């Protein structure tokens, strides 16, 4: 931790150290599904060994703190090195969460006999560290949650918890949104950049360590009819209001409506968009009339429950009938699949954004919609 936030209250001291990462924050932070499950096969070995304890602790003392966020934040702080120590003019920070001595004592730990702490110090023991630090971090989360609700600020409580940890909770309470920009809440440009980089870094680990849901049963859905052909130009009407679709894409659209029902009559897909100029992405299939985006829930949000299941049903159906529909590829839930793509760690492979989109964002990572492109 690079800032002293006692009991999740105010900022006592801050040390702005550079993080060893290169990351760009794209717009307002968007949260990964807060109920997301940890993928044990994707996390560091040290984290996997402590995952049962993390789950027990969060369930007992802080149910609103998902284990996935614990794993991701500690990775950003210490790389899951329980003996990590970062020296600074205030005595340094130590252990998994990189707490400074004052915060560690406030969390119930013992004061350090030296800097760095001796190897037997409780702050450097992973189990003892987690038992003290998770309730302490939870205090920051609850302080931030109460303030955000009272002030009506748009930042999510979990992101505000991260701001508390890296820069002190006064940066949350004294900023307009809960995430300080340069010149507010006593935060200069270096401070604002540190906060932005930190939140971006944690979100990258959230995306990397979250469990990806997989295909769901589609046996109850009708199979599509084979497309009979009819040209490959953008000549068919786009029912979603765009300029045009290729005959293949229009056939795919009609078959999806036949199998799932239209959104207007209560179908599981809330909205659809096909043709679009997509000026920011010259390689997009949308302006060619060869792609559609299907939203099972609200755009910009991470679907959960029935909405998430509906999205997986469509993605699974498109994959199962890719040859019949002439599907080129599908992107959904941060995963990319094509008929020539081998499954890696689940369904398809991880979606990178291609240098155009933020793969951790709800829309950029295609968490809020299923993108389907057609070969012609």
Automatic annotation (TrEMBL):
Pfam families from the UniProt entry: VldE (PF26571)
Q: Which domain of life is it from?
A: Bacteria
Domain (ARB-07466-like C-terminal) ranges:
242-355
Instruction: Read off the InterPro entries from this record.
Output: ARB_07466-like_C
| Name of the molecule in the record | ARB-07466-like C-terminal domain-containing protein
* Naturally occurring in which organism (per UniProt): Pseudonocardia abyssalis
């Amino acid at each position: 931790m690079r800032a002293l936030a006692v009991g999740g209250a105010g900022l006592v001291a801050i040390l702005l150290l550079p993080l060893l990462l290169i990351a760009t924050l794209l717009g307002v932070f968007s949260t990964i599904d807060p109920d997301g499950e940890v993928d044990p096969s994707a996390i560091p070995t040290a984290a996997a060994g402590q995952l049962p304890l993390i789950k027990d602790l969060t369930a007992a003392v802080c149910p609103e703190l998902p284990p996935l966020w614990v794993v991701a934040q500690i990775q950003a702080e210490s790389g899951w090195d329980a003996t990590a120590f970062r020296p600074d003019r205030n005595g340094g920070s130590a252990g998994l969460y990189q707490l400074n001595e004052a915060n560690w004592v406030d969390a119930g730990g013992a004061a350090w006999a030296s800097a760095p702490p001796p190897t037997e110090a409780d702050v450097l023991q992973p189990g003892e560290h987690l038992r003290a630090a998770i309730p302490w971090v939870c205090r920051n989360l609850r302080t931030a949650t109460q303030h955000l609700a009272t002030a009506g600020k748009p930042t999510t409580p979990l992101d505000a918890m991260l701001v508390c940890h890296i820069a002190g909770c006064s940066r949350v309470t004294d900023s307009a949104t809960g995430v300080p920009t340069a010149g507010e809440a006593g935060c200069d440009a270096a401070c604002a950049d540190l906060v932005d980089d930190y939140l971006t870094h944690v979100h990258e680990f959230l995306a990397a360590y979250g469990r990806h849901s997989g295909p769901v049963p589609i046996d109850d859905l009708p199979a599509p009819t084979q497309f009979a052909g009819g040209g490959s130009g953008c000549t068919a009407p786009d029912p979603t209001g765009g300029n045009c679709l290729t005959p293949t894409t229009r056939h795919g659209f009609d078959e999806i409506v036949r199998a799932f029902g239209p959104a207007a009559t209560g179908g599981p897909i809330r909205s659809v968009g096909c043709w679009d100029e997509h000026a920011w992405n010259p390689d997009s299939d949308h302006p060619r009339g060869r792609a559609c985006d299907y939203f099972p829930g609200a755009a910009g949000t991470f679907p959960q429950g029935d909405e998430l299941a509906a999205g997986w049903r469509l993605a699974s159906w498109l994959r199962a009938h890719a040859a019949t529909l002439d599907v080129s590829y599908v992107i959904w839930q941060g995963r990319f699949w094509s008929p020539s793509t081998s499954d890696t760690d689940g369904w398809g492979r991880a979606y990178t954004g291609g240098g155009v989109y933020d793969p951790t964002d709800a829309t950029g990572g295609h968490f809020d919609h299923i993108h389907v492109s057609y070969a012609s």
